[in-house]
Design brief:
single chain; 81 residues; mainly alpha; 2 domains; two-stranded antiparallel ribbon; 3 helices; 2 strands; 44% helix; globular
Amino acid sequence: MKRSTIHEFFIILDKQVIPCNSPSTLGAFDELFKAHFVFGTMYNQMLHNMYTFIQTTIYNIDIGQVQESPRVAEVRAMLLH
């Protein structure tokens, strides 16, 4: 299957299927990220640093309040200065 043939994205939460409104990968990721806040779910442990980086750097949410790994804080500081 090629990326160009993917036309629908879904979020699976507690075995429930939630269709994404966006037809693009970036839009679907945006919906997935925001779903963590709407439903109060925790980030997957394997992806926690990536999500924390996106939360603090892209969305500017809870900067200084969320526990960042030293590497996430370092990369965010480099990008913003």
